[in-house]
């Protein structure tokens, strides 16, 4: 962490404390221990950067988008929603709901019921959905021994390049948390 200034180091250390608590909790209730550090890291990063009110507005916009879909067949917009900031397209894939993607628009191949809509919202907050989506997207990863390159690919996929502006980014933080847990546990 020599490339980080003192405030960034303090920020990372604060995240490491939250990460350690989250890992302890997840270890008690989760079967697949290999992927836990990535799941916990993503949750810590997303919770730190997106407060409840931000998520409230995401749900509001997604609900309005769903209402327009139901009323006038407007395509869904591929928002990132929930505490894990999952893209709607990934949730649809996970739930095996057919769609065609054009830019940010998702044209559904079948009717999306209210129940399906509510399940999408529930999935956006479920760690099992995040785990399944990551395992589907990165099927060849050895989750018990991720490399720095693996973590970079995960961060690029997850943050969609948005947070790769300087040397203090999604990848840096996820890498610090992942390797911290390797030393600490």
Topology of helices and strands:
Blueprint: H1 6-29, H2 36-49, H3 52-72, E1 76-77, E2 80-81, E3 86-87, H4 88-94, E4 99-102, E5 105-108, H5 114-123, H6 127-137, H7 148-159, H8 170-184
Antiparallel strand pairs: 1-5, 2-3, 4-5
What does this structure look like?
There is one protein chain. With about 180 residues, this protein is mainly alpha-helical. It has two domains: about 5-50 and about 130-185; about 50-125, no CATH class. The chain contains eight helices and five strands; from the N terminus they run αααβββαββαααα. The protein has helices at about 5-30, 35-50, 50-70, 90-95, 115-125, 125-135, 150-160, 170-185; strands at about 75, 80, 85, 100, 105-110. Strands 1-5-4 form a three-stranded antiparallel beta sheet. A hairpin with a 2-residue loop joins strand 4 and strand 5 (about 105-110). Helix 1 packs across helix 2, helix 1 (about 5-30) packs across helix 8 and helix 2 (about 35-50) packs across helix 8 (about 170-185). The chain is globular and about 50 Å long. The relative contact order is 0.14.
């Amino acid at each position: 962490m020599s490339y980080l200034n003192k405030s960034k180091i303090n920020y990372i250390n604060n995240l490491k404390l939250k990460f350690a608590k989250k890992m302890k909790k997840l270890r008690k209730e989760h079967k697949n221990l290999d992927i836990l550090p990535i799941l916990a890291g993503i949750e810590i990063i997303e919770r730190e950067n997106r407060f409840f009110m931000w998520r409230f507005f995401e749900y509001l916009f997604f609900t309005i988008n769903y209402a327009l879909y139901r009323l006038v067949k407007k395509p869904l917009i591929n928002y990132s929603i929930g505490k894990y900031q999952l893209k709607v397209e990934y949730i649809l894939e996970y739930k095996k709901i057919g769609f065609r993607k054009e830019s940010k628009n998702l044209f559904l191949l079948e009717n999306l019921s209210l129940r399906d809509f509510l399940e999408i919202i529930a999935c956006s907050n479920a760690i099992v959905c995040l785990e399944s989506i990551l395992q589907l997207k990165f099927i060849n990863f050895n989750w018990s021994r991720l490399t720095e390159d693996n973590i970079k690919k995960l961060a690029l996929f997850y943050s969609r390049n948005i947070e790769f502006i300087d040397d203090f980014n999604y990848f840096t933080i996820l890498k610090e948390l992942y390797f911290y847990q390797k030393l600490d546990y």
